[in-house]
Amino acid sequence: MVPGLLVFAVQIFVLGFSLIILWRRFFSPIKTVPGPFLASVSRFWHLHHIIKGDQNLQLINLHDKYGHFVRIAHNEVGVSHPDGIKKILLAPLHKASWYKFLSIPDYRYQTPMSTTDPKKKVERSRHFAAGYTMSNLLQTEDSIGSVIDQFLAWLDRSAESKKAVHLDKYLTFTAFDIAGEVLFSKRFGFLKEGRDVGNAIGNSLMLNLYASTMGFFRWIHVILIGNPFMTSLNVLPSGHIFDTTVRALDDRLNNRDRNRFDVVDHWLKAMEKNPGQVLLRDVYAAATGAMGAASDTISCALQSFVYFMNRHPNAWERVRGEIEEAQRTQGLCRDRVLASKEALRVFGPVSMTLPRLAPPGGLTIGSKHFPEGTILSINPWVMHHSRELWGSDAREFNPDRWLKDDAGELDRYFMPWGQGYNSCPGQHIARIELSKITATLVGDYNIRQVDKNQDWQWKAYFTVVPHSWPCYIERRAGNELSSW
Ligand code: HEM
To answer: What is the mean pLDDT of residues 58-64?
Structure first.
């Protein structure tokens, strides 16, 4: 009797599973969108490449093969159509449920990033906006400067030693320590200790992988880990970054009369001004979310700048020439800014697709109509590597493209920060950091990769952080060009 029931249950399961596969492949409203077979019936093709760490390149390959629309999962279409950014990211479309994962440690800790309804997201962001305005951020310049000084002291020691060093790691340490200073006036101590304290950066990479995959199975995460019960037990290793963030916030709450500006201070003011609307829990959530968003991204952008400058025949010399000219005339060093922008284009920090839902009535892009509820996503790497949008040299680092007559047109497709209502609120902080650090690197140092022919390594999860490309550092005396 029992084996008979078991066989029946297995048969029902196999039948149900087969029907789902058949429906997704042959009857789904997006059945005609081309893509890999596994992607047409499940999320597994995408998950496989997230875990492998090459989703960015695979998505580019798929669009090269199939064109503007590619089925990357049974319910998701990747879009590279020139109108895609305008119709998907710049419109007030709901974000896909993947974003809901981004409330850490559990679902009570909502952030603007985890809020999928555009109106509610904008409302939530409004409370946190003061922390990100340029005028307020400029007041953090001194604390950013003091972390950069610590980084430069390490560069000087590295130059003196004449040994190969891991610039990648120290750029990551710098990015994390600056994030701590800007957000809550406390650095994590990575630069001081010269190591990944408590394996915090290693853990952050694992969280990056966990979030980018488990976001598709949030219910499992909520049952197992992301629930108030597990949070109350306090048994999960929270790690150095989370602990330091919480300690810094607690410390701030007990010392509110300090005369020091940082981002969290504005958020606590918003909490006082809007009792019941902004809770202390929201501030904790926003601070940990911003920590995650503010460090890997900056490390990638800085590494990308140095790595690609080294692969360009005369980029360093040109930028230095411009800096000297700018120093004479007090002008802007345009070449450095453009090289940094081009580095963000060719190897941008965010490698995940940015998914939105087709609205009631569906959405038409080009000649293709997608019914309500279809997940439509834009991937920054796919857009930035499109030959249709950037020309035949789309996959090369070429800062000169930003000097051409059509550069204004190119800006429409430039999206390292995302675009629209969910775009990065930390852009000003990022620009301040990037411009300060790249200016010093270009002006005061020669940096050479130990083996110029060796590719760096990276895994493209939500963000992509390169590593393992040791360098030699040389301090420039005066304005001479590299002897290398
Ligand atoms: C080069 C550096 C950076 C890049 C390329 C970058 C890029 C992005 C992108 C693409 C998104 C998501 C857009 C979407 O899902 O549609 C995002 C979100 C976010 N970024 Fe950045 N980011 C950078 C630096 C920073 C910094 C320094 C902060 C500072 C705190 C920051 C804070 C955030 C936050 C809080 C979000 C979540 C969205 C929200 O709360 O509205 N980012 N960023």
So the answer is: 98
Residues of the binding site = 424
Read off the DSSP letter of residue 225.
T
Residues 310, 377 contacting (CB under 8 angstroms): no
Higher pLDDT, 166 or 335: 166
pLDDT digits (tens, 9 = 90+) for 431-469: 999 999 999 999 999 999 999 999 999 999 999 999 999
Distance from residue 481's CA to the centre of ligand 1 (Å)? 36
Residue with tokens 């992509």: 464
Token pair of 103, please? Answer: 């409330």
Probe residue for ligand 1, chosen from 241, 382, 424 as the CB with the greatest number of ligand atoms within 8 Å: 424
Structural domains present in the chain: 29-475 (1.10.630.10)
DSSP letter string, 311-367: TSSSHHHHHHHHHHHHHHHT---HHHHHHHHHHHHHT-SB-S-EEEE--TT-EEETT
Query: By C-alpha distance, which of 348, 354, 293 is closest to 466?
Result: 348
Question: What percentage of the chain has pLDDT greater than the value 70?
Answer: 97
Residue 416, classed as helix, strand or coil, is: coil
Q: How far is CA 169 from CA 38, 173, 452, 471, in A?
A: 37, 6, 18, 11
Peptide bond into 105 cis (omega under 30): yes
Please give the mean pLDDT across all residues of the chain: 93
Q: How open is the CA angle 160-465-170, to the nearest 5 degrees?
A: 20
| Ligand 1 atom with the shortest distance to the CA of 286 | 35
pLDDT at 118: 98
**Measuring from atom 3 of ligand 1, which residue has the nearest CA?**
297
Task: Give me the mean pLDDT over the 194-202 stretch.
Answer: 89
Pairing of strands 445-449, 375-378: unpaired
- Whether the pLDDT of residue 255 is over 90: the answer is no
Residues lining ligand 1, CB < 6 A? 111-113, 125, 289-290, 293-294, 297-298, 301, 348-350, 354, 416-418, 422-426, 429-430
